[in-house]
Amino acid sequence: MAIKKDKVDVVMVGLGWTGAIMGMELTEAGLNVLALERGDMRDTNTDTPYPKAVDELKYSVRGALFQDLSRETVTIRYGVADVAVPYRQHGSFLLGDGVGGAGFHWNGMMYRNLPEELEMRSHHEQKYGKKFIPEDMTIQDHGVTYKELEPFYDFSEKVMAVSGKAGNLNGKIVAGGNPLEGARSDEFPTKPLTYQYSASLVEKAMRDVGYHPYPAPAANASEPYTNPYGVRIGPCNYCGFCENYGCYMYSKASPQTTILPVLLKRKNFEVRTKAQVIKVNLDASGKRATGVTYIDAQGREVEQPADLVLLTAFQTHNVRLLLLSGIGKPYDPVTGEGVVGKNFAYQYNGGINVVMPKGTQFNPFIGTGAGGVGMDDLNADQFDHGPLGFIGGASIRHVRYGGRPIKQAGTMPGEKVPNWGSEWKGSVQDAYQRTLTIGISGSVMAYRDCYLSLDPTYKDANGQPLLRMTLNWKENEGKMLTHIGNEMEKVGQAMNPEKVVKAIRKTGSSWDTRVYQSTHLTGGAIMGTTPKNSVVNKYLQSWDVPNVFVYGASAFPQNMGYNPTGLVTALAYHSAKAIREQYLKNPGPLVQA
Ligand SMILES: Cc1cc2nc3c(=O)[nH]c(=O)nc-3n(C[C@H](O)[C@H](O)[C@H](O)COP(=O)(O)OP(=O)(O)OC[C@H]3O[C@@H](n4cnc5c(N)ncnc54)[C@H](O)[C@@H]3O)c2cc1C
Ligand code: SF4
Questions:
Q1: How distant is the alpha carbon of residue 464 from its chain centre?
Q2: Catalytic residue positions?
Q3: Three-state SS sequence of 119-160
Q4: If you measure from the C-alpha of residue 65 to the centroid of ligand 1, how many angstroms do you get, rounded to a whole number?
């Protein structure tokens, strides 16, 4: 029999970005909040002090901070008729674990969406006509607009000390920023990071070709800053050990460097680590959650009663918990009925490698997780898609992450070089100082046959079915990447290089799960305007069980060219306001179905 704990007001599953935000907001409202985190406690000073933090073998190669895939993973297949197999080595995407979640070891690229991306279907139908959207493309509007979310984007950026330059302040275009962005109510909290030499070359080339480059917004603080919670953040020193690592300079925003120093001290907040939630418990009606069940560090089953259950466990885990708990109807790709698991999407990335003449010295070891130069001229619907015959686009940027010796010291692009020996060494030496990459982070639309479900065969260490991903690349995305790759080649050529080598997938190629491309998985518990088209409403509240809320990129109806965390955090703050100001006074659905 399960151990039964005393009831709390709120139980959260996971303590990453969304858990930290919701913990802060709901303890502030006077509620008792308990976070159940399956991983270890983590803090900067104890877990990643210098020089322990800068160990590439430990963190980037062996993935010390990531989920243990031998205990729990996902299975993957390309199509509905295929048999899925388990993902046992971190490759295409990296799953976080432990306090701070993936937010402890992310890069810090902190974008807002373009307004049209939140109204994807209606925008495209209005501009290009209904027939422009293919029948099997199941994209839809989020049900919340950029204007509604703007104050919450703004607050997230202040919490995270994001560095950058506004390009559109209250509708007025200002020099130095991104003129294509949605209107902002305020400047970025910290000034832009300094461009490395390679970024200044790319910036000039983008401008010469006629685009509108701007300093990429980065949750790597550029100057000392105190956030709205009173937490002090130090300036980034461009150490080059950012993504996959904790920031020993307290400069990269993470729950640890921005929220937890305050939240962990609150008497009405508790975190229990090594607590793996296995399901949300429902009452006899199935319409109300009574709490959750978890497995504790000793392997015991524990029942944790609560009035409110928040799934803050990351996109994949949220969807799996909904399916394991029987909340909402699972999606069926054959009939198109059901919603849980629907509209699973990813990102479709590529890049342009530019090799400058011999003697160029980029000093690539000076790097940050997110600082550099970006452009949005080919993102979302910022260009005419009519004659091109595809939907979507890409955010484009050159960010110098670092020049680390194992994974960031590549051989000469476009040349066939052995994996070891003097020829390999010579090629690395030649390429290291004079090669740069312009990254293309492409959107991916939602499709009828790309979805998430429970695997019928494989189980985790607790005997529960793994989550199964059914996904492959589609022609629409292939056309998008080809077009953008060709455009970016022009930027590379404008730099007067020795050569430009495109790294663009061929249309029709399949998802290569071995190669990292991003941890920007989306969908499966999508938001929308009715229970028929979505799992949650605009406040991330479950239509079926109104005292369950689901946070994170599982809510996105399709993927976008941008990194997700800006929208993830804005949606969390938007939801928190609705819980505090409406739900607590009158617990029940915040939107009538
Ligand atoms: C290497 C890397 C780089 C990235 N860079 C960027 C970037 O530059 N820009 C950007 O926008 N995004 C980036 N991301 C993505 C970003 O980290 C996520 O969008 C963000 O962390 C999501 O927040 P979350 O709260 O949904 O999940 P997380 O922050 O991952 O937190 C979820 C937590 O829930 C816990 N959990 C899961 N299941 C259970 C369970 N059953 N029981 C108890 N606990 C559970 C996990 O252990 C984890 O701690 C990156 C991700 C990675 C891995
Ligand atoms: S690059 Fe800057 S923000 Fe990133 S880990 Fe190093 S010091 Fe921190």
A1: 26
A2: 520
A3: HHHHHHHHHHCHHHCCCCECCCCCCCCHHHHHHHHHHHHHHC
A4: 11
Pocket flag, ligand 2, residue 471 (CB < 6 Å)? no
Amino acid at 385: H
CB 103 within 8 A of CB 565: yes
pLDDT at residue 593 above 90? no
Closest residue by Cα to atom 1, ligand 2, is 368
CA of 534 from ligand 2 middle (Å) equals 38
Using alpha carbons, select from 526, 527, 531, 564 the residue that is nearest to residue 545.
531
- Tell me which residue has its CA closest to atom 4 in ligand 2: 242
DSSP per-residue codes, 371-416: -EEEE-TTSTTSS--TTTT----EEEEEE-----TTTS----TTS-
Peptide bond before 224: cis, by omega within 30 degrees of 0? no
Say if ligand 1 is within 6 A of residue 13 CB: yes
Contact 257, 44 (CB under 8 A): yes
Sign of CA dihedral 277, 252, 566, 504: negative
Q: Check if 249 has its Cβ closer than 6 Å to any atom of ligand 2.
A: yes
Q: Cα(538)–Cα(153) distance, rounded to whole angstroms? A: 15
Partners of 447 in the beta sheet?
137
State the Cα–Cα distance between residues 398 and 470, nearest whole angstrom. 31
Tell me the residue type at 231: V
Q: Whose CA is nearest to atom 3 of ligand 2?
A: 252
Going by C-alpha positions, the residue among 147, 157, 156, 74 that lies closest to residue 116 is 147
Q: Strand 33-36 vs strand 269-272: parallel, antiparallel, or unpaired? A: parallel
pLDDT tens digit sequence for 486-529: 999 999 999 999 999 999 999 899 999 999 999 999 999 999 99
Buried b (16+ CB within 10 A) or exposed e, 453-487: bbbeebebeeebbbbbbbbbbbebbbbbbbbbbeb
Pocket flag, ligand 2, residue 220 (CB < 6 Å): yes
Asked if residue 97 has its Cβ within 6 Å of ligand 1, the reply is yes
The stretch 118-124 carries a mean pLDDT of 97
Alpha-carbon dihedral sign for residues 377, 378, 379, 385 = positive
Closest ligand 2 atom to 236 CA: 2
The closest alpha carbon to 344, from 447, 209, 426, belongs to: 447
Q: Which atom of ligand 1 is nearest to the CA of 67?
A: 47
pLDDT in tens, 296-338: 999 999 999 999 999 999 999 999 999 999 999 999 999 999 9
